[in-house]
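Worked example 2:
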Amino acid sequence: MTKKAIYLDYAAATPMEPLVLEAMEQYFVNNFYNPSASYLAAKAVKKDINHARAEVAQQLGTRPAEIIFTAGATEANNQAISGVMRNFPEGEVLVGAIEHDSVRGPANLFNCREIPVTSQGLVEPSAVKKLISDRTVLVSVGLINNEIGTLQPMKEIASLILLVRDDRREKGNKLPIYLHSDAAQAGCYLPLNVSKLGVDMMSINGGKIYGPKQSGALFIKSGVKLLPLIVGGGQEWGVRAGTENVANIIGLSKALVLAQTRRTQESKRVAELRSIFIDALLARFPYLQINGSPKHHGPHIASVTLPGLDNERLMMELDELGVQCAVGSACSASNREPSHVLTAIGLNSDLARFTLRFSFGLHTTNDEVLSAARKLCQVASPNR
């Protein structure tokens, strides 16, 4: 019988929770109806969607009318960025230098400038302030970076955006400025109240919070001028056309409620696992480099650099020993170029290729992280 692998790549994908699957199942066979149809059974399904929307809105501290459902955070990020920038073709968008490719990709279709980060991966409000011009329409900064786990000072950046708006009103500049955040990695660990964060748009990913893949949501604050990417039947308030994926919507809602309900306890538990793992590695490799901010970081991601040791070789050897981890973002794993996140924080191409990402989650145990650390020490030892 094959021994179960130690899965330490929760930042890439999470297994679906049984309660989420249970909530979804009836919409695959029995309640399969098109929510736009006029008969009672279809109207009941539409009511279920509305209930799910209200639940997501409650978790985000906003109104149901400000939530649209998407096929994941990639679509939500594209909708937020392209939806705004197509309205203002002469404007510009600012994105953090370590943003996910689903943010950088659409941003680079327009007038885009990158906000530099510190060596710890922090987007400092002063750096944002320095780059904002009279043409800046959108600023996009993720809550928790998916590769190094750095937690960004979103509230401070939001306060800066408010000052810019006030200044524009005084000067008669009618161009809006919005703040968007990719919160794909934050759903299990941080409060997501959009008013307290100060964001105008925020992306959620069901596949990172023990919900179904290809499920997501985008918060769009009332008054944000945004064009749809997908047009047709007018679903999702006319922003995202197409027959709703009811099962995924229900699953996303259930997963988000569960994740936010246990986030305080789970954040503390996972943070302790991360510390145990890192301490075990440092005991064997005192020269180990921990990437990201030691003070401002998500609890579930540990990016480590072992100088002189090829990360792909280590990853494959760990896989053979039953430990699953990553060399960076799963979305760009096939790209042979060094991670843009690691180069942005100052790692040269060699150090970037000596870096592994471990991410912990709901089913990770103390024994697993200690076992994974021992196995990494084993494959990385020069005397093995």
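The two ends are 27 Å apart (CA to CA). The chain has a mean pLDDT of 94.
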